[in-house]
Amino acid sequence: MKIDEKNISLIKQLCKEYKVRTFSAFGSVTREDFRNDSDIDFVVDFEENDPFKYTDLYFQLKEKLENLFKRQIDLIEERAIKNNFFRKELDRTKVLIYGR
């Protein structure tokens, strides 16, 4: 994975702050085809279920991640994944960063 230990530590802090249950990287950042102009794909599962609080947490976390990495972040919510083909690809490449 192309995310260094310093940034992994910062991600873990953000996960605690934003009530994240699990947080994983997937896609090119976990493979050899990651480039300097690639976006970074993450999948997140929040502890929060209240839709108003959840929305705030989601967009605040996404903004913090984009500021941290200085690049486009695709933040996918675990519960929103319905496509089986996408699910298989995600499961094949994802690397757990936070949670279990």
UniProtKB/TrEMBL annotation:
InterPro entries: NT_sf, Polbeta, Type-VII_TA_antitoxin
Cofactor: Mg(2+)
Pfam families associated with the record: Polbeta
Recorded coiled-coil stretches: none
Gene3D superfamilies: Beta Polymerase, domain 2
TM region(s), chain numbering: none
Domain Polymerase beta nucleotidyltransferase: from-to ranges: 11-100
Any one GO MF annotation of this record: metal ion binding
Keyword Ubl conjugation attributed: no
Protein keywords: ATP-binding, Magnesium, Metal-binding, Nucleotide-binding, Nucleotidyltransferase, Transferase
Domain of life: Bacteria
Protein name listed in UniProt: Putative nucleotidyltransferase
Gene source species: Zunongwangia atlantica 22II14-10F7
Highest classification ranks of the organism: Bacteria, Pseudomonadati, Bacteroidota, Flavobacteriia, Flavobacteriales
